Amino acid sequence: MKSYEQLFIDGRWVTPVKKATFETVDPSTEQVIAKVASATAEDVDLAVKAARRAFDEGPWPRMSGADRAAVLRRIGKGIRDRIQELGEIEVRDNGKPLPEALWDLGDAAGCFEYYAGLAEELDVSAETSITLSDDRFSSVARKEPVGVAGAIIPWNFPMLMAAWKVAPALAAGCTMVLKPSELTPLTALELADIAAEADLPPGVLNVVTGLGEDAGAPLSEHPGIDKLAFTGSVPTGCRIMQAAARDIKNISLELGGKSPFIVFDDSDIDAAVEWIMFGIFWNQGEVCSATSRVLVQRGIYERLIGRLKEETQKITVGNGLQENVLLGPLVSKGQYDKVLGAVERGVSGGARLVVGGGRPSHLDKGFFMEPVVFADVPADSWVWNEEIFGPVVCIRPFDDEDEAVRSANDSRFGLAAAVMSRDSERCERVARALRAGIVWINCSQPTFTEAPWGGYKQSGIGRELGEWGLNNYLETKQITRYDSDKPWGWYIK
Ligand code: NAD
Fold first, then answer.
1. Do the domain assignments include residue 490?
2. How far away, in angstroms, is 390 Cα from ligand 1 center?
3. Which residues lie below 8 Å from residue 56, measured CB to CB, with a gap of 6+?
4. 266 and 144 housed in the same domain
5. Is position 254 annotated as part of the catalytic site?
6. 212 lines ligand 1 (CB under 6 A)
7. CA-CA distance, 185 to 154, in Å (whole number)?
8. Could you tell me if 124 and 162 lie in one domain?
9. How much is the pLDDT for 3?
10. Catalytic residue (choose from 190, 254, 370, 401)
11. Does the Cβ of 387 fall within 6 Å of ligand 1?
């Protein structure tokens, strides 16, 4: 594999000031796959200064939206042209099955193409005139790029999370410093190459790989950053918010979840089982919006759990590069231990372990586990309330709609929720009553670049994707003009 020991700053590959590296590990083999540049505060400072120069003096924010769109489209094409190679890198870095990695990469390319369209629209929509109550004045509202953005992203969808931030920021005319997760840094470095090949001007996108404390914290504290966009855990989000508070940086946060899935007893059981499984087992359950708390109406409770057990046992666990694997390893030893610890906590907390939790017998290396179904999970137990971020589904029965909605909303998180029933009026009613930023009816997880993404409560602040994602990177300025020939009249009468 090629060397990843340099950072991408000001359009060039540079060795980190302290020449430090860290290792990234293939979670299927536990082998080191690459040494990666480990940035510190000095490197972050260079990257922010490059982004600052590119914003304050460079062409990017001053170009037309159409010209920026052309570059974004070339980035999208660059991803598509190398999709197989990037997919394999993503699998080796993160562990996810190759079809899911290819799916992410197609979405990432689509995200650049979508925001190219919005960049073009900005040429006509950036300025709107405002009708004022005093006709001596005229006013327009102008959307302008917010400035230099810092983006800090997690490891579960490495390239896709980068795209969700880089594409709208660049479309808006911002410049950016991107810090990927130290667990999955490789595709962000590939993205830097793709952006350079797409003729993105130097300094517009800078990629600094490094540890959270060494590179993430200095980025979140840097006074040269105007906007911080973060996706990750609640505790880190809290630290980012504190850092941003020091100089009132504009922030958006996409944090964790413990999303409920309500299944009414008129549902088709096989369809419910498939969506429940997809909702918690795709991407190894390492999904912020995973529907990890399932509420099943009592009439079908035991039947559904029986079918879910049968189907869960059929899941092929293995190296994501092998065919027919549905569940890869967890991303790291740390995450593996955390999830196995949560399974023990589930059992000791009184949940019924229906299936899973062991190491698949054919796999003696790698952070692999059998997917877990817990039933009769006590409502006050740790596993019912906390994000596990692994292939572990917790299930409880309910009797009526009110109880289901109350239980679903009884959480400090509010990222996503799902409801399933053949009664469409009931689905609509429940969807409106759920306190979550994303609600799925008769499905769980499908995500569209055009639709807003983000959470209520401790699941975050702001929305990504769609026009909402673009607005994250725009400021609104009013320009008001005095059109009258007459004196204003404060002292000249
Ligand atoms: P994390 O918070 O540990 O790390 C996220 C990023 O923050 C990494 O790049 C890390 O290096 C960096 N970081 C760590 N400490 C930092 C600090 N002090 N200052 C600045 N940056 C720091 O999260 P993770 O384990 O990578 O990701 C899992 C979490 O992300 C889960 O809670 C999940 O729900 C959440 N997530 C949310 C969404 C969403 O859209 N809401 C999407 C994906 C993941």
1. no
2. 15
3. none
4. no
5. yes
6. yes
7. 10
8. yes
9. 79
10. 254
11. yes
Is 118 within a domain? Answer: yes
Q: Where are the beta strands (DSSP E) in 318-361?
A: 352-355
pLDDT tens, residue by residue, 259-290: 999 999 999 999 999 999 999 999 999 999 99
Q: Go through 360-398 and write b for each residue having 16 or more CB atoms within 10 A of its CB, e for each that does not.
A: beebeebbbbbbbbbbebeeebebbbbbbbbbbbbbbbb
Do residue 268 and residue 195 come from a single domain? no
Nearest CA residue ID for atom 42, ligand 1: 288
CB of 240 closer than 6 angstroms to any ligand 1 atom: yes
Q: What is the CATH number of the domain that holds 465?
A: 3.40.605.10
Give how many domains the chain has, as a whole number: 2
Q: Same domain, yes or no, for 474 and 351?
A: no
With a cut of 70, say whether residue 2 has pLDDT above it: no
Instruction: Say what the pLDDT of residue 424 is.
Output: 98
Contact 285 CB / ligand 1 (< 6 Å):
no
Q: Is 156 in the pocket of ligand 1 (CB under 6 A)?
A: yes
Residue with token string 């579960």: 156
- pLDDT, one tens digit per residue, over 457-468 is 999 999 999 999
Structure-token pair, residue 464: 């990504």
Closest ligand 1 atom to the C-alpha of 211? 11
Whether 357 and 382 share a structural domain:
yes
Q: Report yes or no on 177 lying in a domain.
A: yes
Q: What is the pLDDT of residues 469-493, one digit of tens each?
A: 999 999 999 999 999 999 999 998 8
Pocket test for ligand 1, best of 181, 186, 220, 331 (most atoms within 8 A of CB): 181
pLDDT confidence of 168, banded at 50, 70, 90? very high
Indicate whether 101 and 122 sit together in one domain: yes
Q: Are strands 127-130 and 137-145 parallel, antiparallel or unpaired?
A: antiparallel
CATH of residue 429: 3.40.309.10
Give the domain extent around 409: 260-441
Domain membership flag for residue 483: no
**CA 199–ligand 1 middle distance (angstroms):** 30
